[in-house]
Amino acid sequence: MPRTAAKFRQADVARAIRAVEQTGAAMEVVLERDGRIRLTRATGAPMIFHDPRAELAEDAIEIEL
User: pLDDT tens for residues 20-33?
Assistant: First the structure.
């Protein structure tokens, strides 16, 4: 019995996961049977985005010339 063709590749899922991690938001990656990869807000999680540049700004020091 032959296998059916894949609807998405592992690289597609990895790309979606990286995209979610880069936003810093609490999100879920949902793999649909028809091949769609859907990103949804995590259940009960507030929509808060993490900006990595904000950490750099907090650690910066001010130099007066």
Answer: 888 877 888 888 88
